[in-house]
Amino acid sequence: MFTGLVEAVGELVERTPTSGGVRLRIATGLARELALGDSLAVNGVCLTITRADQDAVYADVGPETLRVTTLGSINEGAPVNLERPLRADGRIGGHFVQGHVDGVGQVESLRADADFHWLTVAFPRRLAPFMVNKGSIAVDGISLTIAALGGDRFDIQIVPYTMQHTNLRRVEVRDRVNLECDMVGKYVARAIELAGLNLTDARPGEVTH
Questions:
Q1: pTM attached to this predicted model
Q2: Would you state the pLDDT for residue 203?
Q3: Who's near 195: CB < 8 A, 6+ residues apart?
Q4: Which of 23, 31, 74, 160 is paired with 41 by a 20 to 30 Å CA distance?
Q5: What phi and psi values does residue 164 have, to the nearest 5 degrees?
Q6: CA 48 – CA 61 distance, rounded (Å)
Q7: CATH topology agreement for domains 8-83 and 103-194
Q8: DSSP secondary structure letters along 124-164
């Protein structure tokens, strides 16, 4: 379990093909604090550390994870958001994030607003029932708030600290990003589904920014 508060931005320095998947080598100052078998969220994807040395960690990524996340397409040299799991005695500063990606979105626009930025992300329509205006969303593992919501896109406002201390500082239009919807919303949607109600006719409000 994570909170969506990025601890560090690492660098994907090497990706090596394995049988059906890839092995990632990520350079990070967190490496000396991690050990074999530890969990680590990488761009919002929960991975298991298979090796750690003084300046890098290694993690194996299976074919299903490569299929449903961006980890199959990010290039060597790319910055990646990193977060260690929440401690039982830790503070929850963001929201509960499982590290289980629900879908891949695409950046449609990034525009400055004084010291802040507006980011518009298009998402698969099947995720619409799990999102609410002013609700939480994890974008590449970053806990963010939906400021405006449409049927297949949402707007979020990025504060300067988040822009400077996550991989968003290098985001570009058409970049793909991992999306994880709020866990509470998913459980509510599942309960509604089991009650026999139809979620496909959901009509969120329109993006206004």
A1: 0.90
A2: 44
A3: none
A4: 160
A5: -85, -25
A6: 9
A7: yes
A8: -GGGGGG--TT-EEEETTEEEE-SEE-SSEEEEEEPHHHHH
For residue 192, what are its two tokens?
């509604």
Residue 154's pLDDT band (cuts 50, 70, 90): very high
Extract the tokens encoding 201: 């006719």
- With 0-12 / 13-18 / 19 or more C-beta atoms within 10 angstroms meaning exposed / middle / buried, residue 16 is exposed
Contact between residue 58 and residue 52 where contact means Cβ atoms under 8 Å apart: yes
CA dihedral 179, 102, 30, 159 (to 10 degrees): 20
Per the CB < 8 A criterion, the answer to whether 159 and 116 are in contact is yes
- Give the Cα separation of 10 and 2 in Å (integer): 17
**Could you tell me if 85 and 2 are in contact, meaning their C-beta atoms sit under 8 angstroms apart?**
yes
How does residue 93 score in pLDDT terms, banded at 50, 70 and 90? confident
Alpha-carbon span 101 to 65, nearest angstrom: 9
Q: Which fold has domain 103-194?
A: Elongation Factor Tu (Ef-tu); domain 3 (2.40.30)
> Which CATH number is 8-83 given?
2.40.30.20
